[in-house]
Amino acid sequence: MKGIIIPAFILSLAFLPIEPKAEFLVPALKETDIWKVELKAPSREKNLAQGQKRKYDLYSLLVTNKGKKVYNVHVQSFRSQPGTSKMFGLAPEMQRNLMVKGDDFKFLNFPVKAQSEALEFIITWEDKPMTLRNGTKAPGKKYKESFIFTSPS
Questions:
Q1: How far apart are alpha carbons 51 and 22 in whole angstroms?
Q2: Cβ pair 116, 77 in contact under 8 A
Q3: Cα distance between residue 8 and residue 26, in whole Å
Q4: Please, which contacts does 140-143 make with residues 24 or more away whose CB atoms are closer than 8 Å?
Q5: Is 2 among the domain residues?
Q6: Structural domain that includes position 42
Q7: What are the backbone dihedrals phi and psi of residue 55, each rounded to the nearest 5 degrees, phi first?
């Protein structure tokens, strides 16, 4: 009996449709003492980008400064690609010269290729610019934080 059941089970698995599903669970939140990064469901507004089933999933992003005043803020985003260690850049790339506590970046309905297994958001910023002895301004100290969201698959 065992000799029939095990091969039948293995054979039945061969005929199941195997389709990688790598949707990210939303809402998802990552935060530090300075930044709050929220991966959210897409907006339902008709004038915004729409997803394509099995090609692209849509997400919205909210990045909030919950710390002090910061300068030259840049937010970059990347997605993984199965079968490679490279990360590919995504559309929500934002920058602002100055952000105070409570300021945020919003990016609604950005597409992410289906089967992506990780999303990475990199935030870089600087402290207050320094004034040198001769009176000229120099950039403040630079910082970087990375926020990674992974699919549950």
A1: 14
A2: no
A3: 38
A4: 140/71
A5: no
A6: 20-150
A7: -115, -55
| CB distance 122 to 144 below 8 Å | yes
What is the per-residue pLDDT across 90-114, written as a single tens digit (0 to 9) for each?
A: 876 899 999 999 999 999 888 888 8
Q: 13: pLDDT confidence band, cut at 50, 70 and 90? A: very low
Instruction: Give residue 55's Cα distance to chain centre.
Output: 17
The 10s digit of each residue's pLDDT in 116-136 is 899 999 999 999 998 889 989
Assigned domain for 80 exists: yes
CATH number of the domain that residue 112 is part of: 2.60.40
Is 6 within a domain? no
> In the chain, how many domains are there?
1
Side chain identity at residue 94, one-letter code? M
**121 in Cβ contact with 144 (< 8 Å):** no
Asked whether residue 102 is assigned to any structural domain, the reply reads yes
Retrieve residue 135's tokens: 């009176």
